[in-house]
User: Fold this.
Amino acid sequence: DHPLADTVANLPKRSGVYLMKDAKGTVIYVGKAKHLRNRVRSYFSGNDERHSVPYILKRVTNIEVIVTETEHAAFVLERDLITKYKPRYNIRLKDDKSYLHVRIDRQAAWPRLELVRRPMQDGADYYGPFTFSYELRTVLDLIRRVVPLRTCRDAVFHNRTRPCLEYQIKRCAGPCCLEVEREQYDKWLDQAVSILNGKTSGIQEELQSHMERASDELRFEDAGVYRDRLNILENFSTRQAFVSPGIENRDVFAFYREETLMVISVLRMRFGRIQESENFCLEDVEVPTEEVIESAVLQFYRTGREVPEDILLPLEIDGVDVLRDELKRLRDGGAVELHVPRRGAKFRLLGLAGVNAKEHFIAQFDREARYQKIAEAIARTCQLEQMPRRIECLDISNLQGSDIVGAVVSFYDGEPDKSRYRKYKISFQDKPDDFAAVEEVVRRKLKGSSGENLPDLLIIDGGKGQLDRALSAAHEVDSPIDIVALAKIRDSSGKKKGSGSRASASDLKVERIFLPGDSDPRTLDLNAESTRFLQRVRDEAHRYVIEFHRQSRSRRAHRSKLDDIPGIGPERRGRLLRKFGSIAALLKAPPEEVAKVGRMPKSLAEKVLSVLKK
Assistant:
């Protein structure tokens, strides 16, 4: 018998949610049930063929339940608890970010289209969410070329004294300074909303009519404006192929699965057109596909997405009635149809979504499989206990001891993660010491970092000396991190072979890598894919630190003696140099003039002149 047999036998015979916990008290699985005792008992019966059940039973040491009044309440609570605890064996769509919405405040004197992340209960109209920000910004650019609404913020709008460039290029009617009919402005707003909703045919007809009337009245410049706007709309419309007749709002769910890897693809259609496609990659999927789809559908809409009236599913779901009720609630009581098409246009749509899922699966997991082989090779070479998913590289740059800087680049699963790139201005200058610079950067990077923010492997661009100083810094801050050094090939003169040096084929047969505890470097085969990846990471670090070094030198070159005087900031410095042109000319001016130009006290002006004369 399982140690939890008595616990299971005493569970209530009611609907509710059960939480399975491991020895540490961590929730590893959350499930819902119409009959809690029967549902949980099925895990221990030996008849549950789900892949995840053996793994759960090995780890579960405690089961807690929450009784609910209805099955629907259990359904909702299950989703909330999954979001809260993120259990290992529950499926979660890895896409919890907040999406862009378009806000239009019709109560404003002259409304504009604003991009916001989270809708507020402020009386304004919100359109969205839009999951692809690039596509939304493209549509907004289209709207601004077709509909001349204001784009500036209120602070700018209320302080303008003449129309801006947007007015000059016909993208704004200029309500800030010019008389604009509010009725006409409201029509433009309605047109903008129609474009956001994918409805452009009525606007095209209206523009065509305006163009023809302007041409008949010999207003050829106005006719040209209408013609250009019409062409923009026509090009936008033809880029979106019709795949379903009539005016329909529909989402289509499909999947492609191989063992425990799975991709769910969602085609979103509005007014008969495919507006966008979203793909979600799932790993370690141990539950039946129908459970994944049921969970995915609910999570997809509970993040704030609009629920359409028609949803196509790739297979039948046992709890479809409960799912439909929850989607109706999210749709404020509006009807929602959930069905699995077997033939016709809807079946072809399902097939199209399935093709998208398979293509995304191949693109995503084939790339991951390639990187996994690279990571395995790196782990063997660097004697790591686990495959490195996050690899970072540190490089130092200086010019004869001046403007010494360091930089760290970060790669995750084989791809650059630029959000984790970091730049470091070295505390000491005017003495070229790469070893000390490496030690400082490693210390600053690791100090105070939690385990989850540490890379699996840190590469130092350098040799044994740099590696030893990096290890010393890591030991000083008590950071358990794997560090190696990757050394560039040296020619017979001892000079590093950098990107601008020439080397013979025999010179470039190997790269050298230094590991902790080894007195001599190990050689790497340049033809190995793992070596090429390490070189790629190092080259990116080199590019990044050189770019930072050039920026530092440029900033120093543009500094003047004024920058070192307390009380002289960028604004005062700019005024003085614009007026006098040079330090020499400034020194010839009396303190009163310097104070007036720099808008400063006379005492500070006298101090400026005194410092500059020294």
